[in-house]
Write a structure and sequence with these properties.
Length: 440
């Protein structure tokens, strides 16, 4: 592990240490930074020798100029070396993780981790919280009484050995430099940079110590990447970073124009996840889960049928074991919203479109999401999709069920829906939820 204070500043040909502004100008003008320069400038920033406004300027230069492959490898390496690397070799099973770029109704991790564990792999799933219209895995699981997201490394490994899977927050020791830089990107308009996104995600996944990784890169109105070309480039960039670091990595591009499944919120997504593990899941959710499970098992060389593990109860049993091992009660009742309001169909016909971003924004306004990372969320708030594209609906029939603990939130929730749905007389063609596979 390289400590931030141990970085050696780059030395120019005249023997002088260059000022940070020299590196900013170089990047601004499209001159690649050397690995040594990247190592120094990040270390100096962490030590307080490079000012916030200087690092902000450098991030903005990167936003516009990008990072070439050598720069990206160096940048990611510094992120990794700023903290600890976990050793999962003692688990005794092949390890494989999954990362999603985020979406609406994306409760895949809650089902996928125990499913893949039931097939013989160990799944160390480090997850995050929701922000804006996208939900967070930890927020969902924290609606289960007693369940703990924050585990020490020792506790994480103990749960992984016991249940074969663990879903928890990334420890403070993993890629701490990225935590500082992400907070700065968040307030300087530089989040939407494919190299910086890739480095941020992959530094934590590589430091986690997993042997293999499958990336679920969402595409569409409810995704971070709305255009398929951008999502494909992000997937290719992350796959290359993982592969170069010795982690077997592939990616699936999956659609996020419509909410995944029917539940959007926290407690109601846990309910839908358990129903899916019990064999009663929505077809689109099951299809994405099984595609990711098969890819994860393929990467670690396990010949098993995840559909069978879903059907015979083994995956549900692993889920219950994991929840219990993390202090939760899998049988405890979940929060129920105090108030319900419905959004009716404006006409009769085929539901042709149900916009994921609009539904996610409505759930957020109802209390299921947050505007800032430190904001609280409401466990019971959310939206239940009573109809999905491809369903025939009648005028006045409820399409969405909005749930909130505070009645005053319904006005904002309904307003957020806007023109979320389109009804027509032609039955829509429904594309497959999995678009493509990248890498491998």
């Amino acid at each position: 592990m390289t400590e931030a204070g141990g970085h050696v500043p780059p030395v120019a040909s005249d023997g002088q240490v260059p000022a940070a502004v020299d590196l900013i100008r170089a990047k601004r003008d499209g001159v690649p930074l050397s690995a040594h320069e990247i190592d120094w400038v990040i270390g100096a920033y962490l030590r307080g020798e490079v000012a916030e406004e200087q690092m902000s300027a450098l991030l903005m230069a990167i936003y516009f100029r990008g990072l070439d492959p050598a720069e990206l490898r160096a940048w990611t390496g510094v992120m990794i070396d700023s903290g600890e690397r976990l050793d999962l070799s003692g688990v005794g099973l092949p390890t494989v993780d999954k990362h999603s770029t985020g979406g609406v109704g994306d409760k895949v991790s809650l089902i996928l981790a125990p499913l893949v564990a039931a097939c013989g792999a160990a799944v160390p799933q480090l997850s995050g919280r929701g922000l804006g219209h996208t939900g967070g895995t930890l927020d969902k699981l924290e609606t289960i009484p007693g369940w703990r997201a924050v585990l020490s490394n020792e506790e994480m490994l103990a749960v992984l050995r016991q249940a074969g899977c663990v879903i928890c927050a990334a420890g403070a020791g993993l890629a701490p430099a990225d935590r500082r830089l992400y907070a700065l990107r968040d307030v300087t308009g530089t989040v939407e940079s494919i190299p910086l996104i890739s480095s941020s995600i992959m530094s934590k996944k590589i430091a986690e110590g997993t042997g293999a990784l499958v990336l679920d890169v969402k595409v569409g109105s409810g995704a971070f990447m709305r255009r398929e070309d951008d999502a494909r480039l992000l997937a290719q960039t992350m796959v290359a970073l993982g592969t170069e670091s010795g982690v077997r990595t592939t990616a699936l591009l999956t659609r996020m124009d419509t909410p995944l499944g029917r539940a959007v919120g926290n407690a109601i997504e846990v309910e839908e996840s358990v129903a899916t593990l019990a064999g009663y899941g929505p077809s689109d959710l099951v299809e994405v889960v099984l595609a990711l499970a098969r890819e994860m098992l393929r990467l670690v060389g396990i010949d098993a049928d995840p559909q069978a593990a879903l059907a015979d109860g083994r995956a549900l049993a692993r889920y219950r074991e994991m929840i219990t091992a993390q202090g939760g009660d899998p049988d405890a009742p979940l929060a129920v919203a105090r108030h319900i309001r419905t959004a009716p169909a404006p006409a009769e016909g085929w539901l042709r479109r149900l916009d994921a971003r609009a539904v996610g924004n409505a759930a957020w306004r109802l209390g299921a999401g947050r505007a800032r990372k430190e904001d609280p969320v409401t466990a019971a708030a959310g939206v239940l999709c009573l109809a999905k594209p491809g369903d025939w609906v009648r005028e006045g029939e409820p399409l969405l069920e909005l749930r909130a603990d505070d009645e005053s939130r319904f006005e904002a929730g309904l307003a957020a829906l806007g023109d979320a749905f389109e009804i027509g007389q032609d039955r829509p063609a429904l594309p497959a939820p999995v678009i493509d596979r990248i890498g491998g």
